[in-house]
Amino acid sequence: MNAPAPHVIWTAVCAVADIPALGARRVRRPDGIDIAVFRAEADRIYALLDRCPHKGGPLSQGIVLGDAVACPLHNWTIRLEDGHAREPDKGCTPSFAVKVEDGQVWLRSDQLLAPLAEIAAAHCPGASCAD
Amino acid sequence: MSKPRLVLVGNGMAGVRTLEELLKLAPELYDITVFGAEPHPNYNRILLSPVLAGEQTIEQIILNPLEWYAEHGITLHLGKAVTQIDRVKRVVRTADGIEAPYDRLLLATGSLPFILPVPGKELQGVIAYRDIADTETMIEAAKTHKHAVVIGGGLLGLEAANGLKLRGMDVTVVHIMPWLMERQLDEVAGKLLQKSLEDRGLKFLIGAQTQALLGNEAGRVRAVQFKDGTEIPADLVVMAAGIRPNTALAESAGIHCNRGIVVSDTLQTVTDPRIYAVGECAAHRGIAYGLVAPLFEQAKVAANHLARFGIGRYTGSQVSTKLKVTGIDLFSAGNFMGGEGCEDIVLSDPFSGVYKRLVVKGDQLVGACLYGDTVDGAWYFKLLREGRKVSDIRDKLMFGESALGDAGHQGQSKAMLMADSDEVCGCNGVCKGTIVKAIKDKGLFTLEDVRKHTKASASCGSCTGLVEQILMFTVGGDFSSAPKKKAMCGCTDASHQEVRDAIREQHLLSIPEVMSRLGWRTPAGCSSCRPALNYYLISTWPHEAKDDPQSRFINERSHANIQKDGTYSVVPRMWGGETSAAELRRIADVVDKYRIPTVKVTGGQRIDLLGVKKEDLQAVWRDLAMPSGHAYAKALRTVKTCVGSEWCRFGTQDSTTMGKMLERATWRMYAPHKVKFAVSGCPRNCAEAGIKDVGIIGVDSGWEMYVAGNGGIKTEVAQFLVKLKTQEEVLEYTGAFIQLYREEGWYLERTVHYVARVGMDYVKRRILDDAEGRKALWERLQFALQGEPDPWVEFDKAQVDTRQFIPLVPIPPTEATQGEPA
């Protein structure tokens, strides 16, 4: 994720403590598919679309390993930082900007509201997402 | 501070594999320089034979292209042989004056072909068979010359001869020993091999001793002359009479060599601990290995020490052999020649060209030599490596794994006979052709690699044997499925048993403690090891070790089964499969209220509600007001019963009551894998007790107890354990057996596999012969289950994180009310 554009509006989602350590919470998106917010090692927070690039499994339900999550359906391992599947699997799921301030987790309002197609196009350029 | 420098001498498979392992562990630790005498990047030497035979090209067998070296910042000197090691200044030099200083030096100089000391050995057209240059020479010679003579009827010689024949030459193999491949085959198999190669047009001179090679005026070889004076024409002579570890460089530097560079279990030379040696040049415990599997095991250990992890020892390898001549099936491993104290089991069918010899010593398989039908090679090799007792399967041993009902789905067991389009892995839809292609294109050597790249055998695992066979046939004799000891997962070198032992002996109580004590390589483990460690901790130290829900698979965290669309299924417990109008009414109400799309009767006499939204789970459990059925857990699932003597006119015992007693005594019990019981009231066995982890069958005089059955991937009939008189005895014996499994089973090992591993005799000793031990086991199970909560009711006590059921619904601020937060 690049540096956010100017005048970004953020939405408070929850406190870091509201997410289980080495776990995740689901964040509802009006468009349908949730965002999974992960609390990895050392309270690093990441956000991915809650959909495995393999067969659409809910990543929020997976086991969090260091900075990756194992999908609960077929055990693909997805990097939390950028949503890419670990080699040799191929594919990626969109990732979202996260801000943590004073123990509070924030997501970008525009990304929370954006339609799915727009998110996929913006965050996974090229063919990898369509795989 | 500048990085320490690592210099690798020898750009072949063993050396580069060590670098790969090292880069995985410590990518930034060293400045690495590599010297290779050949002008090529690292290639797969064992596939030279298919190249010679025209089945593959040189490009296809490159393992690490030049970009790989660049990508990892490795300085590569190709076509440069190191000629000097200065151990005082810690520098290596090449003939043309390139110098590279080192802090650690890795020698992987491989081996040299043995050239017969006969007159004429330096003539043009006389070559060895060792590298790409030799292969290219042979391919060229085949275009312009007619007569080829291969000296040496071993693995390499026969592969060379076969390749040259396929390229149109007239080939004679000269072999001084009494039969072909005498180091890998016994006489019968050696003769069978000779016959089938003769059928392909190869000629053999067995027992012939080469005296001289004769040349023409141009200085090219024209004939081979033997001790008895006879001559045969030869335009090309390939010396394949064996290899010798290439130790000249090490010896010149004063490093102790004795049939190889002598190394310790850490692959360090005994002379200079800064210098390591791996591969064919290294002599470990007196053996220099010439096959790739041991080299890879060595590479792993050497890399671990180079990376300063300092764990892991190389303790030697078992090797197996497979000839890479398309269409000829032979396999050998271990001590196939037998000898004192050994017994042979032999099957010989000359008409179909099948010969099998199994060598048994004591109650273990110690060697195997197969010709014509090698489908069970991988299985025999596994038995051999693991040292499993075979006394209980001895009568079926010769007929292979399939005779044990263990041959994978669809009864497909002959990988060689399968077409490329045949499906191997039914779970992931992977065909044979896909697997073969991945192995060849991506240079895969291990089952683990194949699983990662193709997903074949990565789900239920029932086709593992088949995939191993395909691997074996594709990469040939240099394949080995796994080292003797199988590591738990990629995060550690420790095996399941070692982890269990360490937890018990060192009284370890948490996952981080286990990981730090046993040297885990990953900070947080992986989805294989974390659930296993969690189970080992809570089963070894009940009420002491704390359960870690985040190390459990989602089903055991949400106490329901995740479905493909992300919804869940809910199976309430029905004691012994008995229910009531009140329960059924509540279930019906729940289905209506929560709009549950599917209601299904399960095979375990319960009712499954499918398609429940995660948000509804808590309310569904509350409204059902029935205990958790644990259908989602590695735990006691169902106790299936028949109606028994209460209603059935044939019933001899009250099986329903017995089943309910068993279920109430053991529910909430986590285990290495799921556990299922059944109780039948008479030998008609309507509850199918013969395929359960514990099956109880009522007879007029009491109860028969069967264990270790399995109705899953591979149907296994349970084995008779004991005949019992009372219900109390059934409880005690069942509890003791299942507690033994809970304490000793490896994670994801069903009772059938546990019993196969430890042997039924052992189970009988622990449960039948040792009355006190049995009572103690039963008491330990009851202790472990004391106060164990129902996770559908006691959320806090069962550590159910109820936050998971409630999605977060943020309210995005509108433009008018909001700026960037401070």
Structural features:
heterodimer, A: 131 residues, mainly beta, Rieske Iron-sulfur Protein, 4-stranded antiparallel beta sheet, 2 helices, 31% strand, globular, B: 822 residues, alpha/beta, FAD/NAD(P)-binding domain, 5-stranded parallel beta sheet, 24 helices, 20% strand
Can you walk me through this structure?
- The complex is a heterodimer of chains A (131) and B (822).
- In chain A, 10% of the residues lie in helices and 31% in strands.
- Chain A has a four-stranded antiparallel β-sheet, with no helix packed on it. A three-stranded antiparallel β-sheet of chain A has the order 1-10-9.
- Chain A has two helices and ten strands.
- By secondary structure, chain A is mostly beta strands.
- In chain A, a hairpin with a 5-residue loop joins strand 3 and strand 4 (45-49).
- Residues 126-131 of chain A have low confidence and may be disordered.
- With 822 residues, chain B is of the alpha/beta class.
- In chain B, the strands form ten sheets. Chain B has a five-stranded parallel β-sheet, with no helix packed on it. In chain B, strands 9-16-10-11-12 form a five-stranded parallel β-sheet, covered by helices on one side.
- In chain B, strand 1 (5-9), helix 1 (13-25) and strand 2 form a beta-alpha-beta unit.
- Chain B is elongated.
- Chain A binds chain B through residues 7-14, 18, 20-23, 25-28, 34, 37, 41, 55-58, 61-66, 70, 72-75, 77, 88, 101, 106-107, 109, 112-113, and chain B through 452-453, 459, 522-527, 530-531, 549-554, 557-558, 562, 564, 566, 801, 803-804, 807-813, 815, 818-821.
Q: Which helices and strands appear, and what pairs or packs with what?
A:
The complex is a heterodimer of chains A (131) and B (822).
Chain A: E1 10-15, E2 23-27, E3 35-39, E4 45-49, E5 63-65, E6 68-70, E7 77-79, E8 95-96, E9 98-101, E10 104-108, H1 109-113, H2 116-123
Chain B: E1 5-9, H1 13-25, E2 31-36, H2 48-52, H3 66-71, E3 75-78, E4 82-86, E5 91-94, E6 99-101, E7 104-107, E8 111-113, E9 126-128, H4 132-144, E10 147-151, H5 155-166, E11 170-175, H6 187-199, E12 203-206, E13 210-215, E14 221-226, E15 231-233, E16 236-239, E17 243-245, H7 248-252, E18 261-263, E19 275-277, E20 282-284, H8 292-306, E21 320-322, E22 330-334, E23 342-349, E24 354-361, E25 364-371, H9 377-386, H10 394-397, E26 423-425, E27 430-431, H11 432-442, H12 447-454, H13 464-475, H14 496-505, H15 511-517, H16 529-540, H17 554-558, E28 561-562, E29 568-570, H18 581-593, E30 598-601, E31 607-612, H19 617-624, E32 636-641, H20 655-666, E33 675-680, E34 694-699, E35 702-707, E36 719-724, H21 727-744, H22 751-758, H23 760-769, H24 771-785
Parallel strand pairs in B: 1-2, 1-7, 2-3, 7-19, 9-16, 10-11, 10-16, 11-12, 18-20, 32-33, 33-34
Antiparallel strand pairs in B: 4-5, 5-6, 8-17, 13-14, 14-15, 21-22, 22-25, 23-24, 24-25, 26-27, 28-29, 29-31, 30-31, 34-35, 35-36
